[in-house]
Amino acid sequence: MARAKKKPNYNPETIMKELLYEVSALYVEAGNAISIRQLADEFGMTPLKIRKLLITAGVFSSDVCDQVLDLFRSGKSVPEIQRITGLSRASVHSYLPYCKVIYNAEEISLNAERIRLYRERKESIHKFRKHLKEGCDKDKLVEELWDVITIFEKYPFYTMRGFRFTYQVKGNEMFVSRKEKSITRSSVILAMKKAIELQNQVRGPKQLETFGASYLYPIFVKIGLIESGS
Length: 230
Description:
Layout: H1 12-30, H2 36-43, H3 47-57, H4 63-73, H5 78-85, H6 89-94, H7 105-133, H8 138-151, E1 157-158, E2 164-165, E3 167-170, E4 173-176, E5 183-184, H9 185-197, H10 213-223
Antiparallel strand pairs: 1-2, 3-4, 4-5
């Protein structure tokens, strides 16, 4: 019997096209409502790589970007562009489009996982919002909410005060990176019921009236349980 492959045999060109499509589609769809940093959070990449992808897709431009591209097209080398613009080498490269497909096996696999996870998270939110709007059975919503929370494990969120945090799910508990005590599933359920009671119009974490509300609030906004701008 043939030995199973340790890693899928991904097609580099296909993965690159899919990554370019997903990143640029989200950027264009969101318009001015999403920043490079937020895109980086969505795909687990650095802002510099995200900007390079957007430039490659032809959907991002700025004065600095235009200057770097003009200098590069006129025949200037990267060190020369650094001296003229005062940018670091990494920054100059981030303003230049990808001229070839990435063939590094580890990076290809990582990008494939980024695409998969982004799509799964997107679909889980769509499903939850649909059932929330339809007024589905509360028990079903609870299960779906926990599924969404689980799939967003390790995703970077920000509290209303701007503090960055991630969390891990173990059993029926959420362990937040900035907090020693876990947030239990029962606390999440109580917060969900409160948000629904308030018709998704929650003005701040305190209105959720449960332990860990400052962390649950941005998660609920992200998944649509709380309307953005409430």
